[in-house]
């Protein structure tokens, strides 16, 4: 009996390790390909294709990007600004809304919760929203249009509400109220302190969305000085694709002198770098957030 | 006292600070989500950028008629629903399998490391994903073709082969989202009491039976919650995923065009505002009706799982 059980356990463990290792490798593989390609000689990529280990090591891609760093730095600046300002403002609004909506003595909390939730069920569609922001609010080529739409989502407000409800006991608010503190004071000096892990999680969700956004630039930004980092990369990719296609069509190699492929890869890494560096430190907050958010509330 | 004790005004005065704290969020949704609903009218007029919405010529259902008769609408609906169903089912099944397997592994560092690796793709942008896909599949120097060539197996022209994308798009969806769903299921597994497993061991259940008859059934409620949550947005495709992988490559539209990409392209690439607003409104309404029907059915079966 015991021996048979061990045999099953061994088999199960073997399957578990095999499946998990294979899935992890599949998740990791594309990153290795990009990293390797960014350090490869461009001619070698065009001749021999992409490989895991550079056939011929070269830094020309990085050199080209860093030779004229102004546009990249500019795009970095735009994305940093929108990420920092958007995350701080968004957190302020989301925590306040989350706190109010979980207060049991706030009579209309269910009504307002539904007003917010309803926006996930029905909307006007892309065109009316686009027209409102461009024509009626005149937000083309402004920082506002890169920040405002990402400030909050119903999901994040609900997540925050659940966080606060589980982190701040009702008695704390009530006793502070008896001591004469007003609601904002309670929020500011007690609730925020007690829900720091939740704030970190929601803040990271916001920051990630701002950092990875290219959609808002593509819709609302014409001025290259206001391109977000991801949209800047997106444009470079398209320009390079265009140059190579033109070259192939006309028989003249327009991109011959430019290390097209390696530049693209180097740019990709420069754009993703901060996320890859911060990832090990912030990952656990996402796990925590998803764990609490998964509990229906 | 002038104000009635239980009236709206009384509440407003009594809880004015709470109302003020909620105000930014309410204003946000008012501007960002409720105000555009007025623009639904765009779908029924001949679009003219220089005229205001209410001065535009009313043309009734003409935009919809074109979309319907050209067959675009049914194709987009089938693609959107089809892809989303495949996404929902495959990602949940794979996430459950991975979570169950990973939960039985005792090596702490291995668990942490692999979980981090699987969660990593969730953090990179879709623009990077498009670079990755290009690296692997482009005809001249892509990883796939160079590998095929080195084994003398010919070449694959993926960017000109529409049917392949029916497999590739879900594959990259899984790549990006598997870690996310797995974390949720792992959390649910951690919540299962050890007593069940102890009792099963005493009864002689082996590790396969314990996984099959304890862990998997215990994940049912998490699965249903995630499933219903996903069904709520089944008409909203993964715009970033489709647009960054396919872009404006017309050869692939038949198998890869969804409502979101069609609306975006009509707005920004072909400047066909009539089609964009009609298809957008169709998407919103269809999605809304679908959620209502699904929710009513769920409410009948088991009220605890109803979305609202």
UniProtKB/TrEMBL annotation, chain A:
It is a multi-pass membrane protein. InterPro entries: MetI-like, MetI-like_sf. GO terms for cellular component: plasma membrane. Residues 76-282 form the ABC transmembrane type-1 domain. Its main location: membrane. It is found in: Cell membrane. The keyword Membrane applies. The chain crosses the membrane at residues 12-35, 75-99, 111-131, 143-164, 185-211, 231-254, 266-282. CDD domains: TM_PBP2. PANTHER family: ABC TRANSPORTER PERMEASE PROTEIN MG189-RELATED-RELATED, POLYGALACTURONAN_RHAMNOGALACTURONAN TRANSPORT SYSTEM PERMEASE PROTEIN YTCP. Belongs to the binding-protein-dependent transport system permease family. This is Carbohydrate ABC transporter permease.
From TrEMBL, chain B:
The keyword Transcription regulation does not apply. It comes from Cohnella thailandensis. It comes from the Bacteria. One of its GO terms (biological process) is transmembrane transport. Belongs to the binding-protein-dependent transport system permease family. This is Sugar ABC transporter permease. Residues 77-294 form the ABC transmembrane type-1 domain. PROSITE patterns: ABC_TM1. Its main location: membrane. It is found in: Cell membrane. One of its GO terms (cellular component) is plasma membrane. The chain crosses the membrane at residues 20-44, 81-105, 117-137, 163-192, 213-235, 280-298. It is a multi-pass membrane protein.
């Amino acid at each position: 009996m015991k021996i048979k059980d061990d045999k099953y356990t061994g088999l199960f463990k073997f399957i578990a390790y095999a499946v998990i290792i294979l899935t992890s490798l599949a998740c990791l593989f594309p990153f290795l390909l990009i990293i390797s390609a960014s350090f490869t000689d461009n001619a070698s990529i065009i001749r021999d294709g992409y490989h895991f280990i550079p056939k011929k090591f070269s830094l020309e891609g990085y050199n080209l990007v860093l030779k004229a760093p102004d546009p990249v730095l500019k795009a970095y600046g735009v994305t940093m600004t929108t990420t920092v300002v958007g995350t701080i403002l968004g957190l302020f609004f989301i925590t306040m809304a989350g706190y109010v909506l979980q207060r049991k003595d706030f009579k209309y909390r269910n009504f307002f919760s539904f007003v917010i939730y309803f926006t996930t069920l029905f909307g006007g569609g892309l065109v009316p929203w686009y027209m409102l922001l461009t024509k009626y609010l005149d937000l083309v080529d402004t920082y506002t249009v890169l920040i405002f739409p990402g400030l909050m989502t119903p999901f994040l407000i609900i997540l925050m509400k659940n966080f606060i409800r589980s982190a701040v006991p009702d008695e704390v608010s009530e006793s502070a109220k008896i001591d004469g503190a007003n609601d904002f004071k309670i929020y500011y000096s007690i609730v925020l302190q007690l829900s720091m892990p939740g704030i970190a999680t929601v803040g990271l969700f916001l920051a990630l969305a701002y950092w990875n956004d290219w959609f808002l630039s593509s819709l609302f930004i014409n001025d290259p000085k206001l391109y977000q980092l991801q949209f800047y990369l997106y444009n470079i990719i398209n320009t390079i694709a265009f140059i190579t296609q033109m070259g192939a069509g006309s028989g003249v190699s327009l991109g011959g002198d430019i290390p097209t492929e390696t530049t693209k890869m180097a740019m990709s890494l420069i754009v993703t770098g901060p996320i890859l560096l911060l990832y090990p430190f912030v990952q656990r907050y996402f796990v925590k957030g998803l764990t609490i958010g998964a509990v229906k509330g | 006292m002038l104000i009635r004790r239980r009236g709206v005004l009384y509440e407003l005065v009594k809880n004015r600070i709470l109302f003020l704290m909620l105000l930014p969020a309410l204003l946000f949704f008012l501007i960002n989500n409720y105000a555009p609903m007025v623009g639904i009218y765009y779908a029924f007029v001949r679009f003219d950028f220089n005229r205001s919405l209410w001065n535009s010529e009313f043309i009734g259902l003409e935009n919809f008629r074109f979309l319907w008769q050209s067959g675009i609408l049914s194709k987009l609906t089938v693609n959107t629903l089809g892809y989303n169903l495949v996404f929902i089912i495959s990602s949940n099944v794979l996430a459950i399998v991975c979570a169950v397997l990973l939960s039985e592994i005792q090596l702490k560092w291995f668990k942490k490391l692999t979980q981090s690796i699987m969660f990593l793709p969730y953090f990179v942008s879709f623009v990077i994903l498009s670079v990755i896909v290009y690296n692997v599949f482009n005809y001249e120097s892509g990883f796939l073709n160079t590998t095929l060539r080195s084994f003398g197996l010919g070449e694959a022209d993926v960017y000109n082969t529409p049917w392949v994308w029916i497999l590739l798009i879900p594959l990259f969806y899984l790549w990006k989202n598997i870690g996310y769903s797995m974390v949720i299921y792992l959390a649910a597994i951690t919540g299962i009491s050890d007593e069940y497993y102890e009792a099963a061991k005493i009864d002689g259940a082996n590790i396969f039976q314990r996984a099959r008859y304890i862990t998997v059934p215990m994940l049912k409620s998490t699965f249903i919650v995630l499933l219903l949550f996903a069904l709520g947005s089944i008409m909203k495709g993964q715009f970033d995923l489709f647009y960054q992988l396919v872009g404006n490559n017309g050869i692939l539209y038949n198998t890869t065009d969804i409502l979101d990409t069609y609306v975006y392209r009509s707005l920004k690439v072909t400047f066909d505002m009539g089609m964009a607003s009609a298809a957008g409104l169709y998407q919103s309404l269809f999605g809304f009706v679908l959620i209502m029907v699904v929710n009513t059915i769920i409410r009948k079966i088991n009220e605890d799982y109803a979305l609202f």
